[in-house]
């Protein structure tokens, strides 16, 4: 038998087989390594794409305060290239005073090892514009948990800050309104418990406001009156429409208007206002004056409630005001009667009141809406009409509101009215509404500008929109220099 250094041929064959298996293992390992390298490269590219695409500004600084990594969002904001920022100090980017303050704060965070989240910081641009950021600052650690730098996440919240300021201002105005309104204003929950009352209830009931909140009518009024009040309140919540009732308390007479406030996914609230009409009972002249004042306060109160509710959709802030002013100005140019012009102004300021019945996330959605969501949006003229139809305005406000999305060719909603079936008042509001909506920003698109808005209504003149109203609108902007009112 053939032997080699004591090994037989069979031994050599076995060794060769083992060697071939090892070579095959090495080939598999090589293929796996190369695939892992490719995967790692793709992951790095994917990470970099995500890192550079997020709208949040991300920056890594080392312990010396120099940039070791930054995303494109930061670079674009600073009008520099990413590579140009690597290795720079904050002193190379910001004014000395601001850079010193930031670096001192970063050193404190790295020394303590504690993250600071939700910091609100403002920054004044070269053009003098104040920009607000919500900033998270987190210690950056190595694998031994030693702090070797800081990671900064900064999100531009200027728009949100503006909306918060608007909401705070609105709440302050409402509190001032509730403290000084000469009529009695109330809000109740679905259990008929008082949530908020105007300050003058203290004098009516002889108790401080803090002792009145959360109480039922049985706690505040005589049993017979309380029972009647509760029945009326339940009726409003059950039927979902306003009512007006007369009541007597402590020898004085009052008229009360109650109406429901629909909330997104929550039980409706009951709101209303009461006016002392004792003098009206004894004097016909006083009665007419009281009715006049009641209507004036009614308009003001509905506007305040409308303003509060629409804050759930911040982008609509100012829309109704601008539509109202534009519609009023067009009506004036069309030489309509002063009373009709005032009715158009009031209807314009309330034309989207029905939006209180639409979920806030739909109104503020930064995307194209589904058919179902569009259907909800299209219900707002009917909702607004139902809220106002039983309220005796001096003008046909409810009818204007329900028609402001109708179009001359019958393609509008909710009823598909045509031509002269649509009141002139509603035709004016329709043009003002579309012009303001196109010219202004919306969550799902940027503002398209006034010229684009005028182009749209001009192209639709005679088919969708009243030609005389369109001509008046175009002339107003291009010849008279009209501009949409600011907030």
What this model shows, in words?
With 487 residues, this protein is α+β, with helices and mostly antiparallel strands. The protein folds into 3 domains: 53-156, 2-Layer Sandwich (Beta-Lactamase), CATH 3.30.450; 157-309, Beta-Lactamase (2-Layer Sandwich), CATH 3.30.450; 313-487, Hypothetical protein af1432 (Orthogonal Bundle). 51% of the residues lie in helices and 17% in strands. The protein is built from 19 helices and 12 strands. The protein has helices at residues 9-53, 72-78, 82-85, 96-112, 158-180, 201-205, 217-220, 223-239, 278-282, 284-309, 319-333, 338-350, 360-363, 371-377, 380-388, 397-403, 424-439, 450-459, 467-478; strands at 3-4, 7-8, 57-62, 67-70, 116-124, 130-141, 147-156, 184-188, 194-197, 243-249, 252-263, 266-276. It has a 5-stranded antiparallel β-sheet, sandwiched between helices. A hairpin with a 5-residue loop joins strand 5 (116-124) and strand 6. Helix 12 (338-350) crosses helix 16 (397-403). It is elongated, with a radius of gyration of 34 Å. The mean pLDDT is 82.
Secondary-structure map:
Elements: E1 3-4, E2 7-8, H1 9-53, E3 57-62, E4 67-70, H2 72-78, H3 82-85, H4 96-112, E5 116-124, E6 130-141, E7 147-156, H5 158-180, E8 184-188, E9 194-197, H6 201-205, H7 217-220, H8 223-239, E10 243-249, E11 252-263, E12 266-276, H9 278-282, H10 284-309, H11 319-333, H12 338-350, H13 360-363, H14 371-377, H15 380-388, H16 397-403, H17 424-439, H18 450-459, H19 467-478
Antiparallel strand pairs: 1-2, 3-4, 3-7, 5-6, 6-7, 8-9, 8-12, 10-11, 11-12
